[in-house]
Amino acid sequence: AQTVTQSQPEMSVQEAETVTLSCTYDTSENNYYLFWYKQPPSRQMILVIRQEAYKQQNATENRFSVNFQKAAKSFSLKISDSQLGDTAMYFCAFMKQYSTGNQFYFGTGTSLTVIP
Amino acid sequence: GAGVSQSPRYKVAKRGQDVALRCDPISGHVSLFWYQQALGQGPEFLTYFQNEAQLDKSGLPSDRFFAERPEGSVSTLKIQRTQQEDSAVYLCASSFPTSGTDTQYFGPGTRLTVL
After folding, report:
1. CA-closest candidate to residue B13, choices B98, B70, B96, B88
2. Which of these, A28, A33, A72, B115, has the minimum number of CB atoms within 10 Å of its CB?
């Protein structure tokens, strides 16, 4: 079974500063996908960034980037130039493709507050 | 529609009642997922459809839970004889490719409260 661990239940950051959210996972698989999702108070989950495990290059989306360490099974999210709109729950997720379909495993989330 | 919609947004049921939760995915999306999100937790996978075929239902917690997608578009998650532990937000997500590895678009969820 796969598990995803987010060890920081809550974090805060000053506006315009940089913050890093940590995520570790446990799997015996070699090929899989990793995601960070954002869930604002409205509860609609939004994909922030994704990483294919076979790619060594870290994914980047504007102010969001990841530090993917496959051997360490670590997948942290860095948010640069934090904005008030970044305040939300952030979930790390692991996905594995099976012949019968796909399964996603989510962490318990990190509540991020951006302070003006 | 522009996004995934779910109805109702809120549902209160008495213990023992049956409920039906609806998900309208983005038009043309092949893959559809249901998740259960308990308070303060991350979403937990329930089941996965590719078109009308339910390829994986290993996450359904008991035989009281049943999901269908008969025409490959709208999906319904049914919970029979609801229990208090069923209280949670039920999220639906859809994606276009058959592999499901592309971006999942989530609906706003249905918050179920069982009294």
Report:
1. B88
2. A28
The type of residue at B19 is: V
- pLDDT value of residue B101: 58
C-alpha to C-alpha distance for A68 and A52, rounded to whole angstroms:
10
What tokens appear for A54 in the block? 């076979």
pLDDT, one tens digit for every residue, chain B (115 residues): 579 999 999 999 999 999 999 999 999 898 899 999 998 889 999 999 989 999 888 899 999 999 999 999 999 999 999 999 999 999 999 988 655 456 788 999 999 999 9
Chain A interface test: which of B26, B32, B104, B111 (most A C-beta within 10 Å)? B104
Question: What is the interface size between A and B, counted as CB pairs within 8 Å?
Answer: 64
Rounded to whole angstroms, the Cα distance separating B41 from B37 reads 6
Closest by CA to B48, choosing from A95, A51, A6, is A95
